[in-house]
Structure to design on (498 residues):
């Protein structure tokens, strides 16, 4: 069977692609049921290929493969395990162009944003390569002649369930730490964008990862439920919407698994009158419309404190000058497009003002899931666009008189992924950051992702479980601490020493 599927197209022109099967024990196999569903290219609204649709028997096959590979992999020294990651990094860098175009085609991102997200995935792999220099345990003499030592042991067979918006990067939030720690792994990609994971499987194999250490089961809800229920899996990382994160967290916890489930977001960016005008306007626009607003760190609500009209005017001008299809990509599917349109229409019908209107956009007059960048002004806190996750290129602007009102609005929202303050005053920045109810905060930063080695994770309804997903926290999640308390005394008959 062919096991190398480089993606040929290096432009936005539509290209069909191979079918995406399950990756079990180092081979591509059909789902036991033989069922598949189409994978759509969102830019063209056309089917690129088919992806397998898996159920409990496929999950059982993946667990059996991962279980069989576990003893050999965990017995491989850590310093040898991370050599695979060094090679993964090299192969990904050598194939950056291909990986980025494939990602752009399956997800609809622009090539620049696709490249950025593959590079961020590579940065996660780079962090994984350093684990062998960071993962030493702790030890201490806790009493006379008694020593206590902590080692970080693999959990065993682990699984990761990932969303559509970062097909290559989000799997790499999990794989480097989980594999370096000595676990074997089952990945469940988003059925909407399975190809990024497919190429990762090929790359890890080429880099020398033994068969069975990484398996992939494609599918949807049934596949995820089978992963949650399988007693042979010890830990699951999930990234996706809040609704599903909570379901998965509760279902997996019932069978005693370690669970870390990252959910959705509604990020508030607060702008005060002393903010740097140009920096704030361009940062706000980049945050709201990068990846078409389909990222959990995107600006969703701008809270304008006092008179910041000149900044809003600059944002409007910049947003109007964007070229759809070049500066901003498409929406993942027609249902998402309809949902986003509903929020804009609803806000308008309740009296908000659509300053920049992306509703009637197409690219080259062709079909495709398009919505242009949209700014809605005079939004009030009771409008759904102010408090529900839209997950599209829509920025809602709410006006308040004081910083405390802005902070109160941010605090009211049930999510807690990101929040940011735009100001040139350090005291104002500190005051706001100390009061935001969010796990990742920015000062004059629109997408405050804590880059490696710092860990990624929100608060409140944006995360279920403890700890964060990347960096050292990720390593902690995919391991269990073993505490060894030992007493060794010189035996009185140790006469062989003399
Ligand atoms: P989603 O929750 O619909 O899907 C995520 C995964 O869960 C997919 O693999 C999907 O197949 C599976 N799934 C879907 N419905 C399920 C169900 N009922 N039961 C079990 N499994 C199910 O999310 P999405 O639409 O792919 O991604 C967008 C969402 O992800 C947004 O809400 C976004 O904020 C969130 N997200 C969060 C982060 C973060 O770090 N907090 C990062 C990226 C995306």
């Amino acid at each position: 069977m062919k096991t190398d599927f480089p993606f040929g197209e290096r432009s936005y022109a539509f290209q069909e692609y191979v079918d995406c099967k399950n990756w079990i024990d180092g081979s591509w196999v059909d789902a036991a049921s033989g069922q598949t569903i189409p994978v759509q290219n969102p830019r063209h609204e056309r089917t690129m290929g088919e992806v397998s649709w898996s159920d409990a028997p496929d999950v059982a096959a993946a667990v059996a493969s991962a279980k069989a590979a576990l003893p050999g992999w965990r017995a491989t020294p850590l310093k040898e395990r991370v050599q695979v990651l060094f090679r993964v990094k090299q192969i990904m860098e050598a194939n950056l162009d291909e990986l980025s175009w494939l990602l752009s085609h399956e997800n609809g991102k622009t090539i620049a944003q696709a490249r950025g997200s593959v590079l961020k995935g590579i940065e996660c792999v780079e962090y994984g390569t350093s684990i062998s220099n960071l993962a030493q345990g702790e030890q201490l003499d806790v009493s006379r002649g008694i020593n206590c030592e902590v080692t970080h042991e693999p959990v065993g067979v682990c699984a990761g369930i990932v969303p559509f918006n970062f097909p290559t990067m989000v799997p790499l939030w999990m794989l480097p730490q989980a594999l370096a720690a000595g676990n074997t792994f089952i990945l469940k990609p988003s059925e909407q964008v399975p190809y990024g994971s497919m190429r990762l499987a090929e790359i890890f194999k080429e880099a020398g990862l033994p068969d069975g250490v990484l398996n992939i089961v494609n599918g949807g809800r049934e596949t995820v439920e089978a992963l949650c229920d399988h007693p042979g899996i010890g830990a699951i990382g999930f990234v996706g919407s809040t609704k599903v994160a909570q379901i998965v967290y509760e279902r997996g916890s019932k069978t005693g698994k370690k669970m870390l489930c990252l959910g959705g977001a509604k990020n508030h960016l607060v702008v005060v009158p002393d903010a740097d005008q140009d920096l704030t306007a361009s940062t706000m626009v980049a945050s709201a419309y990068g990846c078409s607003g389909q990222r959990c760190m995107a600006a969703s609500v701008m809270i304008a404190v006092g008179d910041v009209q000149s900044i809003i005017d600059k944002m409007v001008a910049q947003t109007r000058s964007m070229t759809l299809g070049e500066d901003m990509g498409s929406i993942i599917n027609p249902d998402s497009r309809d949902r986003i349109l509903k929020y804009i229409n609803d806000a308008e019908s309740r009296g908000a003002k659509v300053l920049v209107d992306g509703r009637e956009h197409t690219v080259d007059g062709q079909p495709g899931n398009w919505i242009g960048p949209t700014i809605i002004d005079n939004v009030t806190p009771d409008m759904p666009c102010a408090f529900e996750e839209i997950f599209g290129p829509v920025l809602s602007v709410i006006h308040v008189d004081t910083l405390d009102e802005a902070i109160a609005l941010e605090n009211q929202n049930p999510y807690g992924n990101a929040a940011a303050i735009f100001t040139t005053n350090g005291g104002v920045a500190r005051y706001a950051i100390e009061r935001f109810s969010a796990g990742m905060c920015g000062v004059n930063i629109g997408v405050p992702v804590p880059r490696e080695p710092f860990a990624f994770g929100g608060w409140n309804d944006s995360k279920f479980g403890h700890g964060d997903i990347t960096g050292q926290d990720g390593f902690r999640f995919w391991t269990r601490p073993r505490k060894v308390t030992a007493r060794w005394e010189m035996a009185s008959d140790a006469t062989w020493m003399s």
In short: Residues 161-165, 188, 190-191, 220-221, 224, 239-241, 244, 247-248, 262-265, 296, 389, 391, 417, 458, 462 surround nicotinamide-adenine-dinucleotide (CB under 6 Å). Residues 267-443 form a domain with the Aldehyde Dehydrogenase; Chain A, domain 2 fold (CATH 3.40.309.10). The CA atoms of residues 178 and 313 lie 47 Å apart. DSSP finds 15 helices and 20 strands in the chain.
